Amino acid sequence: MNYKQWLAEQTVSRLEGLKAEELADWIEYPPNPEMGDLSLPCFKLSKQLRKSPQQIAEGLAQGWEEHALVERVEAVSGYLNVFLNKSAYAAEVVGEVLAEGERFGSRNIGQGRSIVIDYSSPNIAKTFHIGHLRSTVIGGALYRIFNFLGYRSVGINHLGDWGTQFGKLIVAYKLWGDDAAVEADGIDELQRIYVKFHDEADVRPELEDEARAWFVKLEQGDAEATKLWHWFVEISVKEFHKMYDLLGVKFDSYAGESFYNDKMAPVLDMLKQKALLEEDEGALLVKLEDYNMPPALMVKKDGGTLYHTRDVTAAIYRKNTYDFEKAVYVTDAGQSLHFQQWFKVIELMGYDWAKQLVHVPFGKVSLEGAKLSTRKGNVINLEELLTKAIEKTREIIEEKNPELEDKDEVARQVGVGAIVFNDLSNNRVKDIVFSWDDALNFEGETGPYVQYAHARACSILRRAAAGHDAADGAAAPELGLLTDTAEQGLVRELYMFRERVVQAMEKLEPSIVSRYLIDLAQAFNRFYRECPILRSDVQADVKAARLALVKATTIVLTNGLALIGLEAPEKM
User: Fold this and answer.
1) Which residues are designated catalytic?
2) Which residues contact 514 (CB under 8 A, 6 or more apart)?
């Protein structure tokens, strides 16, 4: 049940010229339960109704005696504060969670519509490092959130598999490469020789000319260049998949930059037909000074294409292929101007769906204040980070719960979850200075904290089942008994899940779900401390109701963790 909508519908009949949907947007949740469960600020109504906010609130506060969901209504300082009937509220919320199970929180908001999400997009033959983690986990979370709300998500990994860097890599391989070393060490070896190329090119500039020449060969379909390129791509994608499997991230398309090589000519022709392309010293560009932006360079002097060309082409291809309602691009904030430029080019081409293109920027990751740089070797390998997190978790398990079954599996779930949650718990636009200590800190408001709350709840249910006090007993539990302050606090958090998921979708901000999970885990732990469940002196009907509340908590924790890419261990 949507309580904001319900209150709006109950109230709007007493007001002229307002619709329930509009009024529902004004309704708030008071920060303190002593101020009510729902609150309607009446200030916006004052001018329309020609009354003071307090007079309006006092008028609306009358006549609620017959409503079974309402305990009392108060008019305070221009606010209409509604206190819900605790028994009815608990029965409604917990009953819905138990009935809907893994679908609780889901909606059909996007039924029949597609959302394209472009995320991760690492460069071929370069280390998958912590800088790629943000795009990967933010995009993966948005993919799941949109799916959960009824959309058809289309995840695209726009691989960086084209460009002059491949000319450099070919030169590096021919000078210093070794087949056995590349086969054995994969990206690490390709990375080593790529870094060596830049070191050598600083003292031998002619290497840059050789690299450009080899890339021209690749563009022209030279057999040797093409064979090496395919090999580099194959090695890289194989290693990327290891990371995606660990992170639980999936894609529907791996169409990278090279996919659009044969699709750009018609786009350039259209730009010419619409008189948008202008020549500047042999290059072709779209001038954007009327929109306070530098020009978008589409074709270089040597005839080569650029990121703008490929991104415009890719957007047109994706619109034609997926007929998206929205195309979302998850990249770091440093690329914001680039996206503004080519979004504007799409608009100038006459495509009214240009407004459906959305850049989702996130803060940059630096290493102790220094910018990450593959060519300088200044990166943290993501596989190394995840491996260390898993190893640390395994050590903690051995120390605190040596009898635990499936230690390796739980260590993987918790260790990887800690890294992902650490990233997704902060607002995405926040810059991050990577620290090994912070990344591997499992104390406080972390992923393991939320996962442990779930494991604790599961433990309670197992112990209840062993003592034949299962939540799913023959008689339905009396959920209306859940009126204690801590019980109501937990019920309130369970109810908020649906709203938080929708907010995360609307704001394209997965951290809303992550922060909610912390709040839910804290509410559960408070309930666990203050409300005995399995103690012998707890009445049977109260015990059954509290076990139902525990069960509902496991459902919502599991659903929420899944949305951000974490698993929910039943034992820790």
Assistant:
1) 126, 129, 132
2) 421, 424, 425, 564
